[in-house]
Amino acid sequence: MLTLSSSLFLIAFPVGLIYAAVSDFRRFIIPNWTSVLLIFGFILAFLATPFGLERFAQHLAMFFVALAIGFGLFSLGLWGGGDGKLIAATAIWFTWPDMLSFLLYMSLAGGALSVLMLLAAKLEPALRKLPGLKGITLGERAINAPYGVAIAIGALLAFPDSAMFEALVYGIV
Questions:
Q1: 49/55 Cα distance (integer angstroms)
Q2: How many whole angstroms separate alpha carbon 28 and alpha carbon 14?
Q3: Which pTM was predicted?
Q4: d(CA 78, CA 172)
Q5: Would you say 153 and 109 are in contact if contact means Cβ atoms under 8 Å apart?
Q6: pLDDT tens for residues 39-60?
Q7: Which domain holds residue 99?
Q8: Three-point CA angle 125, 128, 132, nearest 5°
Q9: How many domains does the chain have?
């Protein structure tokens, strides 16, 4: 039973993720407000589900685990701070079984993104010769892939099979 509020949450989640991915790809910046929006969106969406406090604690646990991993990767210089915040703000939408799908899809998307960025960097000299692409610079992007793109792709692929999605669309607990 899809309600107007459920529909808004189902739209807000992917829109927030897509905005973060595009921003990360274009400028290597994931605005803090996108992560805050995803967290507040989750809280409002959760209130529209039949889930109880125990389930909320499970979602919160995924948030804190993802936040710790994200900031661990940031402290090692493997990720940006925005990536660490985005993965936590995204992970809160999942519980453990669904989190595995999200992490699998995100990892596959991250691998594909890295390969594509390296290929683009190798092709950069040839691309610069094409009309209209003279100012293109991909070297930095090949080294620092915008991982917010992979986070968004992973979440968008995993979300339709998640318990949160089913609760919002069908009212299933």
A1: 11
A2: 19
A3: 0.87
A4: 38
A5: yes
A6: 999 999 999 888 999 999 999 9
A7: 4-170
A8: 165
A9: 1
